[in-house]
Design goal:
Largest sheet: 6 strands, mixed
Strand content: 15-25%
Shape: elongated
Oligomer: single chain
Number of strands: 6
Structural class: alpha+beta
Helix content: 25-40%
Order of helices and strands: HEHEHEHEEE
Number of helices: 4
Radius of gyration: 23 Å
C-alpha cells in the first residue's frame, strides 16, 4: 500500500471545508467593501466641493452644475462618466491655466476634471453619482452624492456637502 499521497476523498473533504468557510466569509467581505466605498464617496464629495469653491474663485463667479457617475452601468450615457470628463479639454483657458469667464453664470461639472481641479482616481469606480445644480445651490448645498444600485446597502442613500464644508444626510 502506497502512503505517499492524499486520497481523492481527503482532497474532496478539504475542498468542501474551504467552500463552506468562503461562503460564510463573502457577506462580510461585501459589507466591508460597501462601507469602504461609502467612506471613499464621502471623501470624494468633500474634494469636489472644495474644487467647486476654488473654481468659483478662480473664474470670478462661475458656478459648476451637472451630474457625474463614478461607475457607469450598461446603457448609461458616456457623458455622465467621471472618466470621460477628464478626457475633455478645459474650456476658455487663459495663459495662466485658469479658466476665464465673466462674473456669474454656470459651466458643466466636467470642467473640474478637464481643468485639473479634480483627479479621476478619487471618483472612478465608485458606485455613486455626484450632482450639483441650481436648486441645491439655493439651499446652500454645493454637491449631493447618492449611492447607485451598485452601492450595496447604501443604494439610494445620499448626503450633501454644504457651503460651510459640513456633510449631512439629505434627500
Amino acid at each position: 500500500m502506497n502512503n505517499k499521497g492524499f486520497t481523492l476523498m481527503e482532497i474532496l473533504a478539504v475542498l468542501l471545508i474551504l467552500a463552506v468557510v468562503v461562503s460564510f466569509a463573502l457577506p462580510g467581505i461585501r459589507l466591508i467593501r460597501d462601507e469602504v466605498h461609502h467612506s471613499q464617496a464621502k471623501s470624494a464629495a468633500s474634494k469636489m466641493a472644495e474644487a467647486m469653491r476654488s473654481f468659483y474663485h478662480d473664474t470670478k463667479g462661475l458656478r459648476v452644475v451637472g451630474t457625474l457617475v463614478g461607475k457607469l452601468r450598461s446603457g448609461e450615457a458616456e457623458e455622465y462618466s467621471v472618466i470621460s470628463a477628464a478626457a475633455q479639454s478645459c474650456n476658455d483657458r487663459s495663459s495662466t491655466g485658469i479658466p476665464t469667464s465673466t462674473t456669474g453664470g454656470t459651466t458643466g461639472i466636467r470642467q473640474l476634471f478637464a481643468c485639473g481641479y479634480l483627479s479621476t482616481k478619487d471618483f472612478a469606480g465608485l458606485p455613486y453619482s455626484f450632482t450639483a445644480d441650481e436648486d441645491l445651490f439655493e439651499n446652500d448645498v454645493l454637491i449631493r452624492a447618492r449611492g447607485t444600485t451598485d452601492a450595496g446597502r447604501h443604494a439610494g442613500e445620499g448626503w450633501c456637502v454644504y457651503r460651510d464644508s459640513s456633510i449631512a444626510e439629505c434627500r
